[in-house]
Each structure stands twice: as C-alpha cells, then as structure tokens.
Design goal:
322 residues, alpha+beta, T-fold, globular
C-alpha cells in the first residue's frame, strides 16, 4: 500500500488517509479540522471537552449539548437496543473504576461495581427535543466504543460528496473505504493475530466500499493476582468480559454500526453473536475463538486469505447446528 497522503494524531490514535491520486490540501485540512473538532467534543482526556462537561454536570438536570453529540447519542441508544443492552455509552463510571484498578493493581469493591451496574438498568440518560440531555446519578458517558466509527462516517461522507476514492483509518481498529474507480483493485487489509505479544498477520481480506471495526480482549490487558483483565466491560455485570471470543471484526456500510457492534459482539460471545447476525442482514463478521477457530460469514469467506496456519477457518453459515 502506498504511503498516506495525510497523517495526523487525533482521537487518541493515528488518522491516515490513502488515495489513488493527489487531493487538494484545503480538502485535507477540512478533514483534519473535522476530526479535531470531534476530539474536542468527546475526548475524556481533554478537561475542556463536552463529554467531561456533561459528566461533571448535576445529575437529573437538563444540559444543552452540541448537535453532533446529540446525533451520536441517538445512534448509540439505537445500538444499545438492537444489541440487547450489550453495547452502552453510559459505562463511564465502570470504565473509570477499571482504569484505576489497572493503575493500582487492586480489584474494585464488588458492591461498588454492583451499584454502578444497576444504574445502567433504568434509563440512565434521556434526550429532549431541544438538544438537551439528562443523566441519572452514577452515570457517566464514555464514547470510546463508538466515536471513531462516527467520525469515520463523517469523513467518508466528505469523500463521497467530493467523488474521491480513498481508504481512511482511525488507528487499526476503525477503517473505511469509498471507491469510485472500478478499474482499481480492492484494498487489501491485514487482520492481525489476536495476541498481546504477536503482531504477525492472521490473514488478509479484500476491502472495497465498506467499513470495518475490530475489538479484542487481547488489547489493553493487565494482571491482578494471576488473573488477566482487559478494557472491554460487560455492562450487564460491570466486569471485563470473559467468554469464548478473543477477537471480533465487524464489516458494514456504516462505521458507527461496525464499531458499536464489534464491541457488543465481543461482550455477548459466540452463540449470541451468531444469533444477532442471523437476524440482522446488514453486517458481516469475523469471530476468532480462543481455540484458534476463525468463523466468517459467507460473504467474507470468499474474500479472506488465511496466513497463520495454526488457525482453522470455518464458514459461520454452515455451523448453525453446532
């Protein structure tokens, strides 16, 4: 793959833009400005961000929010419903607790986890028709599992409106492509081995006019008293996920959906993920299990090439009776 025509740091990651030709610098400047503006709204690491203003506001009181934030939360609420509560942007308190546990190397108090988890059960946030939000006590927002996907959708819209073919990435976990040049081959993306130590390729996949998001329990890991933990929190239990999946990649036409669903599927595990896919025809997925089995939905099976032969590839559609 050729070098990107523009790279910059934002949203806590490296943003890269690849095209088949040159683009006007002003257009690229506008893209960078869009991403940086979203970072100002949604970064938990900026004291002046809107999300921190929301989280620090008085509970049970309406607070005015930016239109982009309002639209993002609406999408997030819809994905919470469609994934049976396995995706939540209201887990900010739980995320904070486990980040502190990683620093102190001490497990959080079980009653504290229970209290924060129960706060998610009863309409933790409410949106009004006046671009206002009301959050309940013990509820903080965290857009870490959806913001990059939403920004990627905004960027892809820029390129589609300008009729420019491109491959865009926000780090290695959120990638999207738009292609108006039928004579050009599809992009080839690498899927890495899901391991904290192994950065080799698991396989490659042809990629054209799609988005993909990857989540895995092998990232941001830490160990407390001999037990490995990670950054993906199950909103139903309040604890880092423990199931049969170690890696998930979701492909769809919508990057926001891809990112939200990759997190939700990592939370719900293999069997629930298969049922979700069977009832939702608008996405494809790669599921990597701890036993080194790789399950691909049929459309992806035709596009995927295995490199690491220690893994076994299976067609998800043929495994329904397992």
């Amino acid at each position: 793959m050729d070098k990107p025509i523009r790279e910059f740091l934002a949203m806590g990651t490296l943003v890269s833009i690849h095209t088949h030709g040159q683009i006007d610098d002003q257009f690229l400047d506008n893209c960078e400005e869009l991403v940086c503006n979203c970072e100002k709204l949604w970064s938990l690491y900026r004291t002046d961000s809107e999300i921190n203003r929301i989280n620090q506001s008085a509970p049970n009181q309406p607070i005015s929010i930016d239109q982009l934030t309002y639209d993002l939360i609406i999408k997030a609420i819809n994905f919470t419903q469609s994934t049976n509560q396995n995706f939540q942007v209201t887990i900010g308190e739980l995320s904070k607790i486990w980040k502190q546990a990683k620093i102190t190397q001490k497990l959080p108090d079980a009653k504290l986890i229970q209290n924060k988890t129960q706060a998610l059960l009863h309409k933790p946030i409410t949106l009004t028709s006046k671009n206002q939000l009301i959050r309940q006590a013990n509820v903080n927002l965290d857009f870490g599992a959806v913001a990059k996907g939403y920004v990627l959708d905004l960027l892809l819209k820029f390129f589609r409106n300008a009729h420019i073919s491109a491959l865009l990435s926000l780090g290695t976990s959120s990638i999207g492509a738009v292609n108006f040049l039928d004579q050009k081959p599809a992009w080839k993306l690498g899927i890495r081995v899901p391991s904290t130590q192994n950065f080799q390729l698991l396989g490659t996949i042809k990629f054209k006019d799609w988005t993909v998001s990857t989540s895995g329990t092998y990232e941001n890991t830490f160990n407390i008293k001999g037990v490995n933990y990670h950054h993906i929190i199950d909103p139903n239990t309040g604890y880092p996920v423990q199931n049969d999946l170690i890696g998930v990649s979701v492909f769809s036409a919508n990057a926001t959906m891809s990112e939200a669903y990759s997190t939700a599927i990592a939370v719900m595990g293999f069997n629930s993920a298969r049922r979700l896919w069977e009832n939702s025809p608008n996405f494809e997925m790669i599921l990597i299990k701890r036993n080194h089995e790789i399950f691909l939905t049929p459309k992806l099976n035709r596009l995927f090439k295995l490199i690491d032969q220690s893994f076994t590839v299976k067609n998800l559609n043929l495994e329904k009776n397992d």
